[in-house]
Amino acid sequence: MKIFKQPFFVVGFLIILFFLLGSFVFEAMYGNEPKQTFFIEENGRAVEGPPISPRISDPVHLLGTDQFGYDQFAKIMLGAKYTILAAMAVALLRMLIAVPIGFILGTYLQKQRAWINGLIDPFHYVPMTIFAYLMLYPILWEPMEGFSTTQFERIVYQVIIMAIITAPIVASLIGNEANLYYHNEYILAARTLGASRRRIIRKHLFPQMREKIFVLYGQQLVETLIVFGHLGLLQLYLGGTDVSYDPLFGDPPKSIAYEWAGLFGGNFRYLQGAPWLPLGPAIAFALVITAVAAMIEGYTRHVNGNVKIPKRRKSTAFVNEETVQWNQEQFKEKLQLLQKEK
């Protein structure tokens, strides 16, 4: 494919492929439980216990361990598939909801579009994390009697709710863009010839906006990853938050899976003493977000193409130099004859 000739797209694609493919391969090779290290020995003496700091010279503890001795790199790799695939599912479902509604707003509901946008506009100024937290808390926070749903069901509910929350804003953006295209001259000509709005959407609007829809999908994917990080700080983790209600020996809330929001939010309190614990998943989030941005940039360059300035043609002389010299000599001879006659 020609798009893979764009270096930005290739770099972003390889980063995401590394995390996704590496997550499944890592689980197949080492299982779904990270390696646990209780202490580091040097010369037969224990020199460091968990949380063990990162050791570049030791590939087993490249990103260190958590407070229980579990390898941090293994946890990040195991949780990559949950985080990235869930974010992709949220963004995809959001676009599947918003794109048809947006085309309807831009074509069928042109008179009502103004007051519908007026209802949607205030949501631009309210952080989506607040709505997500309020709606997901009853689903993701473990009650005292335990969860009544499975982990997969909770992930599905979270994906659906997070998609619906922002779908009206995305639909409004698509509707405004579709309305601009709907008033172009070639679409007015198609309407004059009897084309229905449904045909105009299918044959004209969607092909014209296909590239922008793909870019918008990438932007929604980035926004979803950011909201995951925010919910992690608020201790709402993907698939549910495991809560201990033991009044004497209760553990802090933790993630059921090793998804990145749980690794980031659950270890944020160790930012001062063991900064590698929250920084590891934070860097993973940043890498994937940067990869998506690079893919969007590469796709945009692929669609727009490189504008090549045409080479200037060499000026072509209709008369060669010999002819010019011969004419000059003739002119001099005639001039001399005229002077003699005078």
UniProtKB/TrEMBL annotation:
CDD domains assigned to the protein according to its UniProt record, in alphabetical order: TM_PBP2
SUPFAM superfamilies: MetI-like
Domain of life: Bacteria
Record's keyword annotation contains Acetylation: no
Residues spanning the membrane: 7-26, 84-110, 122-140, 155-174, 213-238, 276-296
GO biological process: transmembrane transport
Membrane topology of the entry: Multi-pass membrane protein
GO CC, one annotated term: plasma membrane
Pfam families (alphabetical): BPD_transp_1
InterPro entries: MetI-like (IPR000515), MetI-like_sf (IPR035906)
Occurrences of domain ABC transmembrane type-1 (ranges): 84-300
Cell compartments where the protein resides: Cell membrane; Membrane
KW Zinc (keyword) present: no
Entry keywords, A to Z: Membrane, Transmembrane, Transmembrane helix, Transport
Main location: membrane
Family: Belongs to the binding-protein-dependent transport system permease family.
Protein name, as recorded: ABC transporter permease subunit
Species name: Paenisporosarcina cavernae
